[in-house]
């Protein structure tokens, strides 16, 4: 009896997405699960068909084979699909597999052999805002793999570094297991994909050519770096196998919050609280800049809370440039607290003088004028 089409088994279109396949499978599997249908042989058989179909279609490689060859792709010893397979000219099943799935497996077999490059390392450092502004040089200790000194990174106890073909993979660097039409290919566990094994391995590194150590590195952080920046140090990662290049070191930079400045790109913001009298009468104040200098800011009379003053070129450094952003002074007018008797008397006199003076507090007078109109319009 011919098998039902896998897509028809799951009730989905041939271009169904992975999510659509999963939803259809879950719905049908729940409906026909043997625990929900005790003693029902048809439900049990249907449940097996659903699982078989989903097992093939959820896998990109298997699905590609099924779309091309149908059920014949998974039948051990079965007939070839329409058009047949061409085994002439020395081509074998593995070659057909390579042609079909080279894109999935990263190229033709054997193409990945050779010295294995060292792994990349990821590390993190934390600096303050002033260091990010000026740039800094900091030390970083990282656990890594370095070249074995005992064998000079060759992995061999002997100076001639004698090597043999790996007996497990026969020198290909890959081992294969056939499952139906599929030929599953994996990196050889014995030689790690090298295809060669060292005849007399180093007693320190056991043939790896590298050993575990902790290294201290100098990391140069450029001026203008932003929070979350990743700095790449080529060749400072783990050492590679014999004759292979080292990996890279990636350093993630975090910047600690500052207690005075807030950064926004190349600009800096500084919140400056002013006494009520300073904002009303005007004043000159000194504010710090991120470069360690002082900047004098003239506060005009009648300054309101939230007003900003711009200091050009006093902001943050720009990465890989001599330019600098701007600094913005944000005014916060502070209401006095814990008044003395004399201060209270003066403020009461001030309030008596200020009543009815629309020019003195135009925003306040304007708001309460609208409030009066609102209540009058509602008959209150």
Automatic annotation (TrEMBL):
Zn finger intervals (CR-type): 135-214
Needed co-factor(s): Zn(2+)
Domain CR-type: 135-214
CXXCXGXG motif repeats: 148-155, 166-173, 188-195, 202-209
Top-rank lineage group of the source organism: Bacteria
Zinc-finger among keywords: yes
Main location: cytoplasm
A GO CC term attached to the entry: cytoplasm
Keyword Mitochondrion among UniProt keywords: no
Coiled coil: none
Gene3D superfamilies documented for this protein: DnaJ domain, Heat shock protein DnaJ, cysteine-rich domain, Urease metallochaperone UreE, N-terminal domain
MF annotations from Gene Ontology: ATP binding; heat shock protein binding; unfolded protein binding; zinc ion binding
Pfam families: DnaJ (PF00226), DnaJ_C (PF01556), DnaJ_CXXCXGXG (PF00684)
PANTHER family given in the database record: CHAPERONE PROTEIN DNAJ (PTHR43096:SF48), DNAJ HOMOLOG 1, MITOCHONDRIAL-RELATED (PTHR43096)
Protein name: Chaperone protein DnaJ
UniProt organism field: Rhodovastum atsumiense
Gene: dnaJ
